[in-house]
Fold this sequence. Notes:
Structural class of chain B: alpha+beta
Order of helices and strands of chain A: EEEEEE
Shape of chain B: extended
Shape of chain A: globular
Radius of gyration of chain A: 14 Å
Radius of gyration of chain B: 32 Å
GO molecular function (chain B): RNA binding; structural constituent of ribosome
Largest sheet of chain B: 5 strands, antiparallel
Largest interface: A-B, 22 and 24 residues
CATH class of the domain at 149-230 and 256-287 in chain B: Mainly Beta
GO cellular component, one term (chain B): cytosolic large ribosomal subunit
Largest sheet of chain A: 6 strands, antiparallel, barrel
Strand content of chain A: over 45%
Low-confidence stretches of chain B: 24-50
Number of helices of chain A: 0
Protein name (chain B): Large ribosomal subunit protein uL6 N-terminal domain-containing protein
Keywords (chain B): Ribonucleoprotein, Ribosomal protein
Number of strands of chain B: 9
CATH topology of the domain at 149-230 and 256-287 in chain B: SH3 type barrels
Oligomer: heterodimer
Family (chain B): Belongs to the eukaryotic ribosomal protein eL6 family.
Structural class of chain A: mainly beta
Order of helices and strands of chain B: HHEEHEEEEEHEEHHH
Low-confidence stretches of chain A: none
Number of helices of chain B: 7
Strand content of chain B: 5-15%
Amino acid sequence: MSRLYAKGRVLGFKRAKRNQRPDISLVQIEGVKTLADTEFYLGKRVAFVYRAKREVNGSKIRCIWGRITRAHGGSGAVKARFRNNLPAKSFGASVRVMMYPSRV
Amino acid sequence: MIENLTSSRLCLITIAAQLDIRNGSQGAGSVYGSRTPALFYNTNDTTTASPGLKHPAKAVFLQHNYPRNSLLAAGVNKYSRSQVIAKRVLYKRKPTGAIAINAPAANKTVEVKGAKNGGSRVIAAAKAPRFYAAEDVALPKKNRKHAGVAKLRNTIVPGTVLILLAGRYRGKRVVFLKQLESGLLLVSGPFKVNGVPLKRVNQAYVIATSTKVELDATKIDAQLNDAYFARPKATKKAATEEAFFEGEKKKEPLAENKVALQKATDKVILEAVNKVEHLRQYLSAKFSLSKGQAPHALQF
């Protein structure tokens, strides 16, 4: 097809055992398994695309944009900050990790 | 540093410190205040002037890139008024006379025709404003920041095949021509091959591949610069009621000279492209990620 983004999953919010910080979400990118691999994705823009019942600006599809800010842990997970915090409904949902801004 | 100060300065600093504690510290004010000397020492003397001076006031009055004085504490400067003046080394410089101050624009008197019109009118040089606000509203400061021109990645060289990541032509493989003065990259499909015209693209939205087309950078027309891509200004009178209700305007066909320039530029590119096997098909194919491909692992 014409996919120009890497697929990712929203794992949840940044959190400790009993408290969570919803301003930063954790994302797992497909194929990224080590800390070294995440370096490519830092700064890349992320889009959480979802559907809604009400039409806005001619479309029922909506999007929350964000950026990958840093790595999370040593196994390839990544922290992302979105323009508006992701809804908790997004846990486990797909996220699109674009290839821009490109540094290659 | 403190040792070099005179005892009087030290006293002043301690007094100032005491006042600070009592009154609450104020911000550092300008050392020169609002005085503007009428007679200047001009900068024809280049021996003492420092290079790289751009601001006209600096060039005349300061003649160097560093401030002559510094603030030690509130109201206490490192150098006294006479010491600062001594630093100007006036004995070495020759005054070249007063700077010409432009005479303020005078009011114009215009003759008016008509028997009962009073003969003449006085037109003020400074026009009175049409509107006076009821309350004084603070105006935001003007932004004087300018983003610098993005540095071209060393992987991007004239002739490099780039992958466009966003925009109408996302996924297309395209040939890089040159970087324009604004920092944007000038790029062409070529149009015949993949439908991408001469276009400006931001470096951040582009992946540079290792594939290169042998392109002579000098053969790119000098006409192609940021001004070439500027949008034509819409005439004000075009906004009639009819047009408003009609909706979108018809799209005008591309100017002939632009079509010709596209063809000429592409001709040069295609000559080089056709020499390499499969390169034309490569440029006409779109880039996309397939299953199992992770961008960080790809070698572009």
